[in-house]
Every structure is written in structure tokens, then in C-alpha cells.
Model the fold of this input.
Amino acid sequence: MHLVRDPLPEAPGREALTGTPLVIGVGNDAHRDDAAGVRAARLVRALLWPQVRMVECEGSATALLEAWRGEPVVIVVDAMSSGAAPGSLRRLDVSTTALPAELFRSSTHGLGLAEAVELARSLNELPATCVIYGIEGVEFGAGTRLSYPVECGVREAALQITEHILSRWGVPSPESTPAP
Done:
């Protein structure tokens, strides 16, 4: 199991955010477009730091279950392979409906996101609010460079996730947070 915790969990003198979502970036930096979820989550972290929590996960079902255990609100971002246009985005609230396994059918993670969601649901361990952002990939071979349409999709996903967090949870900007 490969799970990377947030390297900058909290700024000194600041309280941990309560009620804000945990952002989980899923993917593998060594498999081109498979890194889309991790890259988008890193951008969200950069845009909202230090007010957002983020975890990177290679995407095995057990690692995902561990990452979101006990979290009430989770946003997961991952590459998908559904046949849609490369770089296109899909947002799915899986809190009450199943995640279609065919959207994430070419996972390099073995039992991956779709299986983790349904396993967590059957074990009553799915977060109360769980939103999945999928970025359609096209190149999943060895390498570290994202394809151009997926790079664009990563940026758009990061902006949409950031907007979603700000509109729903009203995360304050660093300027409005009192200094320690």
C-alpha cells in the first residue's frame, strides 16, 4: 500500500479545518496521464494552501479506504478511461449512487476507485459526502509527461474543485486568517 500524507499538514499556530473536505489525488507519476488526479490535487493544494488537506494515493482500493476512513467529506480526483474526449471532466457524487466501473476501466491500480467506493459502501465506510472528479486520459504508458489535453483537463479540474470547495465551505484566504 502506497499512501502519501500531506507534507504540510498545518501552518504553525493555525487550527485544523473542520468540515472542509479531504482532497485525495489518485494516480501514478510514472504512467503519464494516470498522474492526472495527483497533479490536479497538487494544484488545489497550491491554490488553497494552508486551508485545505490533501492526500496522494496510487489508487489501490485498500489505500483509498485507509485514506478516507473517518472523513465526513471527501473529494477524489483520478484519471479515467471511458472513451470520452481526452482531457474532458466528469463530476460524480457517489454518496448515494454507484460509481460506474466502466469509467475507470483501464486503471493501473488493480482494484481501484470504483471497487473502493462500492466496497466502502458495503462496509458502511463511505464518507457521507463523496464526490469524484474524473479526467479523461489518453496516454497511460511509461513516462512522466501528461498529454496536452489532459494537462488542460488537470488545470480545469483543479479550478472546478477549488471553486466547489470555496463555494460550499467558504475556506478563508490566508489574508483573512489572524496571524499566530
